[in-house]
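dumping this here before i forget
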Amino acid sequence: MESTEQQRDALSDLINVALARTAETLSDLSNRRILIERPEVVICSVDEAQERLQNRISEPLIAVHQSFSGALTGTAILALDREEARTLVNLLVGEETSTPDLDISAREVVVEVGNILLSACTRVFGSLLQVRLFSSMPRFRLEDPATMLNTPTAQDEQYAIIAYTTFRVQEEAVPGIILIILGAHPIGRLFKAIEEQ
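structure:
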């Protein structure tokens, strides 16, 4: 399924709304000014998305997964390099940690960021389609970029919306990747709704 520049721009606009809401919520929770940049959006097959992840993020990758269902069914993922995830946690909580691995409390922060962001993305998609979507509990995972999308669910679905963005906190920049995995019919519904706007 080929996407047009207009469709990619429209999806970037939609996801940007979700990112702005996420930034506002995180700013309120952390008492820090947080910005999340307008995303660069790519629409591709799951196989190509897998290759892009391998080229963009070193292993192990930190990921928060959240499934959504209803009139639109799919999986939303926030992916961060491990070092970048640790930096983001430090900036949000205002504490430095020297441990290379994320402890339980740091993982909880990452999961909360993912939950806020991915739920916001799901809501803007639901608003576009004028339907209510239901999100699962977010799940924290340490992933190998080469195999992250090689799950039975992902294999049944065919397309990935990839949104490259950057968290900006206290003049620090932390890159992040949002992936929305959808089948051909759901992504077709999104494109149709975009065209009818």
